[in-house]
Design brief:
alpha+beta
Length: about 90
Amino acid sequence: MKRFVIEREVPGIGGMTAAELSGAAATSNAALDQLAPAVQWQHSYVADNKTFCVYLATDKAAVQRHAELSGFPANVVTEVATIIDPTTAKAG
C-alpha cells in the first residue's frame, strides 16, 4: 500500500460540530467499506475550510474512487515518498 495526503476543500468544515463531523466520518466509512481493502483512512487534519487526510491505498485511482463514492472532493492527491520526523536526524 502507498501513503497519500489528500487536500479537500470543504467550506466551513472547521466550524462543524462533533455530530456533523461524526456524520462526515460515517459517510467516508461507508465508501471505504465498498473499496476495502484497496483504501484505508488513517486520519484527517481539519482546518478552517480544508481537510488534509492521510490514506493508505493501492494507487491514486483508488483514492479518487473513494472521493467519488463519498462525495467529498479530492482537490489535491499527493503520494508520500517518505516520512521524516525528529528521530531522522539521528539516523544519519
